[in-house]
């Protein structure tokens, strides 16, 4: 055997596959970035206030709630699932927090309310995880069920009313700022950093990618599949709960329906940012990027005085485009 | 040795279809090499040969599912010009493939008439004559005497009845040639008997039938003629009554493979590290003993032979804990091992490398290091589940390099590796494992090139030398004979024969595998 010859042959072959494998995925995410630039740059020229510090802060403030549920959804999608219950959890967590603070002032009760809201999210996430991982119910159906269950509990607990919040310490969360930056923005980036490290550097994160990438291979390799799936749903529930608490602080009330429809943004954000709906591919940074893109578009359209009704239409098209790019990148056929 | 007997069946002297110098290549590999064969009306031909000999390809070309690279199919003395399923059907050729091709949610009648529905008025826009189709379908079912109704949905009936519905569908089109690719693989013995009655009736009505099989008793019961394929060539065609089973087996074996001399390490003279007793992976069928014992000692390489579907993979999966066994005890390192699951197996040093590495082995979206380390990640994580990436990379690199894997760095995607190198990445898991005791390898050389195969053999021998017990299954007999201390032959879900290295005999093994 002529070693030199075989070695060069082996060397050139994988090189080709490697570039072929990645050029498409890269191209797809590049397209999204270019589209983003095409939107932001002209807008900044026409309306300079668009890139003012004040406006950037207001964009980040707008997206901080979306980002938290988008991160949680990102983890679930990476693990190969989907979580439709996030919007209802946002409402439920707000109601729970508001109820805890009824007639109770002081920072202590504010903290208990935050924990309570997050806990409500964890319970729903646990339910999702059990249904999917232990009862083998498809995630789409299981979380569609808990979407309704969480919304229903929100209604029952609040008796269908909005529960106003008077606890000043709690309301300060969304008013207070350090160095001109409101607290929810710090929370968003802190959660992002934590999740980014968890997914890229810890065992749980690796297992999430492995289970999402090939659940059969992960099982053969002896991975604790069920624990991984449950963990992903619990993370999503907890973050939706936290988002609900922050939103309640912003609107100074707990309302069961505040998060209704948020699941659309939650799913769109990671997908726009390159997390594959098939699972196993992408990064949580993609979810952050996706949510920034959606928030910027919303904000820009507002500045341009476009009716919010159109914003829905435009967001819808962007989501379809992003999923299309995802299928192109992964060479999957939908039919 | 191989003989080609020219013959004509007694009263029907004219062939319905002929293969004329048919060759088929996929890329550089020649699957069929100048096949010449004639099929006569009113005859049943059994097509035999080992896995990969080209049987299915032969049938697919005749049915128009594949076009030949060279040569032509001749129907009634005329060469076919177009190869498509509809052209095949137009010439009266029907095929029942190994994969079920029925629509599960539709009824039996809907499926039998699929694509040729009876309609009132316009051909596609018209109303369906549903009751008439149901009646006709029921009449066809009744002729086959099976207890299903024309308006049962396919998903409601058993797999073997679905198989028969496929045959009814093919027969309902009144084919002149009926091709059955391993029709009995999912049937019970009773159903097989039943199928054969049906085939006999079709034959008596003048149909030419070809079926592929691995089982000798089926050939004896069913076939009028036999054709044996080996490495894409026909090595034997003759009427069954002129042949002995010896001649058939001689025609099947002797596939050429680059022989490699391996120096097998001595087996450790200790107790078996893995032993199973009174074991069965399937429901024991009537009159057949499906229970068996098996054991392997440290440093021993045991080869598992057997035709596709003979139970080798089911055995691996049930020992490793992916499936449950019907019955039997497993002992690992002299301890009973009852609560079997992949994670428990790995903890005890029992490692399984599946045959379909892309589906069940690797996570293609992860990189090479992540894949090789996957089962043992716990060892490379610190407090809080923090992965020590440097260590992970070094360990996997060491393992891969000791296996002579060709790759560009531990952080490239595993999908970018060639098949042979992906297989090595799987084997690397065994090197990284804490305390590997037993390695179960399912078809480790399938679809990889000759050089990589030699590497894999060397790795297996080396692991055995380090005292690991190895059980390896393969469809390539010469490979097993080179590699194993001992070969166990599976048939119908159980080990039916076991041979020591000095008693290896290819014919003997094939005979045991096909039950001749």
TrEMBL record, chain A:
Transmembrane domains' residue ranges: 21-45, 51-69, 76-101, 107-127, 134-156, 176-197, 229-252, 264-297, 309-329
Localization per Swiss-Prot or TrEMBL: Cell inner membrane
Membrane disposition: Multi-pass membrane protein
Primary localisation category: membrane
Keyword flag Lipid biosynthesis: no
GO CC aspect terms: plasma membrane
GO terms, molecular function: transmembrane transporter activity
UniProt keyword annotation of Transmembrane present: yes
Keywords: Cell membrane, Membrane, Transmembrane, Transmembrane helix
One Pfam family from the record: BPD_transp_2
Family per record: Belongs to the binding-protein-dependent transport system permease family. AraH/RbsC subfamily.
Protein name listed in UniProt: Monosaccharide ABC transporter membrane protein (CUT2 family)
Annotated organism of origin: Kushneria indalinina DSM 14324
Automatic annotation (TrEMBL), chain B:
An MF annotation (GO) of this entry: ATP binding
Source taxon at top rank: Bacteria
Protein name (Swiss-Prot/TrEMBL): Monosaccharide ABC transporter ATP-binding protein (CUT2 family)
InterPro entries: AAA+_ATPase, ABC_carbohydrate_import_ATPase, ABC_transporter-like_ATP-bd, ABC_transporter-like_CS, P-loop_NTPase
Domain ABC transporter: residue ranges: 17-256, 274-516
Chloroplast is among the record's keywords: no
Organism: Kushneria indalinina DSM 14324
CDD domains in the record: ABC_Carb_Monos_I, ABC_Carb_Monos_II
One Pfam family recorded for the sequence: ABC_tran
């Amino acid at each position: 055997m002529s070693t030199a010859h075989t070695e060069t042959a082996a060397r050139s072959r994988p090189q080709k596959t490697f570039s072929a494998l990645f050029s498409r995925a890269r191209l797809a995410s590049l397209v999204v970035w270019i589209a983003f630039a095409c939107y932001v740059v002209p807008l900044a020229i026409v309306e300079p206030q668009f890139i003012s510090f004040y406006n950037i802060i207001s964009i980040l403030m707008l997206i901080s709630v979306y980002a938290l549920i988008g991160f949680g959804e990102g983890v679930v999608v990476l693990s190969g699932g989907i979580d439709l219950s996030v919007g209802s959890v946002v409402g439920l967590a707000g109601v729970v927090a508001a109820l805890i603070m009824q007639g109770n002032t002081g920072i202590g009760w504010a903290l208990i309310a935050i924990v309570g809201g997050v806990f409500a999210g964890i319970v729903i996430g646990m339910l999702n995880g059990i249904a999917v991982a232990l009862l083998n119910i498809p995630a789409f159906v299981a979380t569609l069920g808990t979407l309704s269950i969480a919304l229903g509990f929100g209604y029952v607990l609040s008796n269908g009313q909005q529960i106003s919040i008077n606890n000043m310490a709690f309301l300060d969360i969304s008013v207070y700022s350090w160095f001109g930056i409101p607290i929810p923005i710090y929370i968003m980036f802190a959660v992002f950093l934590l999740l980014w490290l968890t997914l890229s550097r810890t065992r749980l994160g690796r297992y999430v990618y492995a289970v999402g990438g090939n659940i059969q291979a992960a099982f053969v390799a002896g991975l604790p599949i069920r624990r991984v799936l449950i963990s992903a749903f619990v993370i999503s529930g907890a973050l939706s709960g936290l988002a609900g608490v922050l939103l309640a602080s912003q609107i100074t009330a707990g309302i069961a329906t505040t998060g209704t429809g948020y699941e659309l943004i939650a799913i769109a954000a990671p997908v726009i940012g390159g997390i594959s709906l098939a699972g196993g591919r992408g990064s949580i940074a993609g979810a952050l990027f996706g949510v920034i893109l959606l928030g910027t578009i919303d904000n820009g359209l507002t500045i341009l005085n476009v009716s919010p009704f159109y914003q829905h239409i435009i967001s819808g098209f962007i989501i379809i485009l992003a999923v299309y790019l995802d299928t192109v990148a992964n060479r999957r056929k939908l039919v | 040795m191989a003989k080609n007997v020219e013959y004509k069946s007694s009263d029907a002297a004219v062939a319905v279809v002929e293969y004329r110098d048919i060759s088929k290549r996929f890329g550089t590999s020649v699957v069929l090499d100048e096949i010449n064969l004639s099929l006569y009306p009113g005859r049943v031909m059994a097509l035999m040969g080992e896995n990969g000999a080209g049987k299915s390809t032969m049938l697919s070309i005749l049915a128009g599912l594949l076009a030949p690279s060279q040569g032509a199919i001749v129907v009634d003395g005329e060469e076919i010009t177009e190869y498509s399923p509809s052209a095949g059907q137009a010439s009266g050729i029907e095929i029942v493939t190994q994969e079920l091709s029925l629509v599960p949610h539709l009824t039996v009648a809907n499926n039998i008439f699929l694509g040729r529905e009876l309609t009132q008025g316009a051909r596609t826009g018209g109303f369906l004559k549903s009751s008439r189709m149901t009646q006709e379908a029921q009449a066809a079912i009744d002729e086959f005497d099976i207890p299903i109704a024309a308006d049962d949905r396919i998903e409601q009936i058993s797999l073997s009845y679905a198989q028969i519905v496929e045959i009814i569908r093919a027969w309902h089109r009144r084919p002149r040639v009926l091709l059955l690719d391993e029709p009995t693989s999912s049937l019970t013995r009773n159903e097989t008997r039943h199928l054969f009655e049906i085939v006999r009736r079709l034959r008596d009505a003048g149909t030419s039938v070809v079926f592929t099989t691995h089982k000798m008793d089926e050939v004896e019961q069913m076939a009028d003629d036999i054709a044996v394929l080996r490495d894409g060539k026909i090595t034997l065609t003759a009427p069954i009554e002129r042949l002995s089973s010896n001649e058939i087996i001689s025609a099947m074996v002797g596939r050429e493979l680059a022989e490699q001399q391996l120096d097998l390490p001595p087996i450790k003279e200790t107790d078996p590290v893995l032993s199973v007793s009174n074991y069965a992976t399937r429901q024991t069928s009537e009159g057949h003993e499906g229970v068996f014992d098996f054991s392997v000692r440290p440093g021993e390489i045991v080869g598992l032979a057997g035709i596709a579907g003979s139970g080798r993979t089911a055995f691996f999966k049930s020992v490793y804990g992916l499936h449950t066994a019907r019955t039997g005890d497993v002992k690992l390192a002299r301890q009973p091992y009852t609560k079997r699951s992949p994670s428990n197996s790995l903890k005890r040093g029992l490692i399984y490398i599946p045959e379909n590495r892309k589906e069940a082995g690797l996570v293609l979206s992860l990189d090479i290091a992540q894949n090789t380390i996957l089962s043992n990640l716990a060892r490379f994580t610190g407090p809080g589940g923090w992965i020590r990436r440097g260590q992970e990379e070094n360990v996997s690199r060491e393992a891969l390099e000791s296996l002579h894997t060709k790759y560009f760095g531990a952080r490239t995607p595993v999908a970018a590796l060639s098949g042979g190198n992906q297989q090595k990445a799987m084997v690397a898991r065994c090197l990284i494992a804490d305390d590997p005791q037993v390695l179960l390898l399912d078809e480790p050389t399938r679809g990889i090139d000759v050089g990589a195969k030699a590497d894999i053999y060397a790795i297996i021998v080396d692991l055995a030398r380090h005292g690991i017990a190895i059980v390896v299954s393969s469809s390539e007999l010469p490979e097993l004979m080179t590699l194993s201390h001992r070969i166990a032959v599976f048939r119908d879900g159980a080990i039916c024969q076991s041979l020591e290295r000095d008693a290896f005999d290819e014919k003997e093994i094939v005979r045991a595998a096909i039950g001749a």
